[in-house]
Protein: HTH cro/C1-type domain-containing protein
Amino acid sequence: MFNGVSMTEISGYLEAIKDRYALTSDYTLAEKLGIAQPDANLMRRGLKVPKPELCIKIAKLLDRNPVELLLIAQKDKAPKQAKEYWTLALTAVDVMLHVPKRPRYLPKKVEAIGRELKQLEAQTLTYEGAAANAEAVRLMETAEQSVDAMMERWNIWKKGEALYPNYLLANQAAARRQVKIRRLLILTQAQMQDSMTVSDAVNVMDDQQRAGVKVFYAFREALVQSPTFQRLEEDFRKHGAAEDMNTAMFDREILIFSQTYGTVPLGMVGTPTPITMINRLQISWKPEMIRDLDPAPLFDMTRYVFEYEGAGSFREQLARFTRSMRELPRRAV
Structure:
C-alpha cells in the first residue's frame, strides 16, 4: 500500500502524485506529467497504461524505483492469464528493493536465496565451499522418515574433520525424531593395511552408532565385484559425482552427493591442520536421478555389506577379507 492506495495499479500512483503535489484536477496532473489532459484522466481511472518513459517520470516524482513502475505497467497491460507472473516478478523486485545495505550479511543472504530460486526449475541445487557442508546439515534437519547414505570419503567423519560434530549432531537429532538412518562406509584394502586408519574407521563407526545411526561397512575390492555396485558407480559418474562417492537419500525424495573435494589448512599460528572439505555438493529431486542413484539396494547385499556390531566383529571380518585378498592370485591360477 502507498498512502492507503493499492500499489498494484498505475492509477494508484497517479492519485499519490495528486496528493503529494496538491493537484486538484486532471488538468494540473497532466501539466505535472507533461502529457495531455485526456491521457491523464484515462490513466488515473486505470483505463490506459503509460509508456516506459512516463513510468520513469512518475517514479521520480514519487521517489520510487523506476523498475517498480515499469513492472506494474507491464502487469496492468498483460492478458489475464499472464498477470500472475508479473505479480510474482513485482513481489521479487519489491523484496530486492527493500533489502537494507547494512549489515552486509542481509544483501548477501538475499543474493544467495536468489541464486537458489533460479536453480529450482532445473530440480537441482549446487553449493560450494562451507555452504556445501552447511546444507547437508539443513537436509538432515528436514528428514522425517529415512536417510540412506553411502560414503567412500568416510574419513571426513573423523574428529576435527568437516562433518564433525555439526553433521553428526544433526544425525543424532534426526535419530531422536525416529528417523531411520542407515550409513554404509566403503573401506579399501590399502586403508585397512594401516593400523591407524583401521582405528579411525572403528572410531567413526562407534561415533555413528552412538548417534543412533545404523552403521554398515563394505570392502571396496569385494563390493566392486557386484553388478549392482558397478551400475551404481557408473550412474554416479554419468551424473558428475566425485571419484570417491559420498551420497545420501532423504525420505526417498531428495538426493545429495559430492562432486568435488578439497583439502583446506586450518590454523593461522603454528602447523596448520589439513581438513578435508566437500568443495561442491549437488542436491537433486529429479525423478531419474532418484531412481538411478538410490543407494538403498546396497544394504541388502549381505554377501558384501555387513552391519557394524562393534570393533571385535569388525576386526574379525577384516581378517577374513585380508585372507581372501591374499588368496586371490592362487584362485586366478
About this structure: The chain has two domains: 10-97, 124-332. The longest helix spans residues 311-332. The CA atoms of residues 254 and 285 lie 5 Å apart.
